[in-house]
Amino acid sequence: MNADTLPLIQGEFWAEPPCSRATRAHDLDYLLYLVGPLVVPRFDSLEFPELIRSVVPQARLRQIGLGARDEQEAGLASEEEALGYLCCAAHEAPLDSDWTDIMCWLTVRVGPRWKMWEANDLGAPEQLTRTEQDDLRRLRAWLREQIEKPRKKS
Fold first, then answer.
1. 39-45 contacts, C-beta under 8 A, 24 or more apart
2. pLDDT per residue as tens digits for the range 57-115
3. How far apart are CA 102 and CA 136, in angstroms?
4. What's the rounded Cα separation, in Å, for the pair 73 and 95?
5. Those residues with Cβ within 8 angstroms of residue 107's Cβ, 6 or more apart along the chain or in another chain
6. Inter-CA distances, 63 with 13, 57, 73, 122, Å
7. Angle formed by the axes of helices 21-35 and 56-69, to 10°?
8. Among 114, 106, 110, 93, which residue's Cα sits nearest to residue 136?
């Protein structure tokens, strides 16, 4: 095969990609999510935990992959971002028992995933209640919306 027969040389590389506008808009949402800001409860609140901050880029890529495979995960922020947000919120005011359970449950899942700490007994529930699952899902959806929102306005 010589260079004249390569698709790249023949100009096919520059052709319009075979995807719809909806797909390209979806790709833009992914990009906005990947480069978006970290969300904290208040502007002057405690800084996002550095240990968690360090894995957020990889966690966002992982979340995009999860969302592509599992419709229930699509449009949600990562568990890592939810944990970071709750860590900041816990410094603002005490969390109620449901949010404390959610935070402990996330801690046991996130830390070992990135080898940040061992899963130990934090009193974390093995499984969240249906209400806690719904609360966590709403938090993650809201976080994702906040991450993408600043860029979508412009």
1. 39/77, 39/81, 39/85, 39/143, 39/146, 39/147, 40/85, 40/88, 41/85, 41/88, 41/89, 41/92, 42/92, 45/88, 45/89, 45/91, 45/92
2. 999 999 999 998 999 999 999 999 999 999 999 988 899 999 999 999 999 999 888 88
3. 7
4. 25
5. 83, 122, 124
6. 29, 10, 7, 25
7. 150
8. 106
